[in-house]
Amino acid sequence: MYNLLDKRAYINVDFYISCRNVAFLGLLLKSLFFNNSWEKSMEEKILITAGDVEVEAEVFLNETGKAIFESLPIVGTVNRWGEEVYFSIPVRVDESEDARDVLDDGELGYWPTGKAFCIFFGKTPSSRGDEIRAASNVNVFGKVLGSAKVFTDVEEGTEIRVTRSKGAKTS
Question: Pairing state of beta strands 132-144 and 100-103?
Answer without folding.
Answer: antiparallel
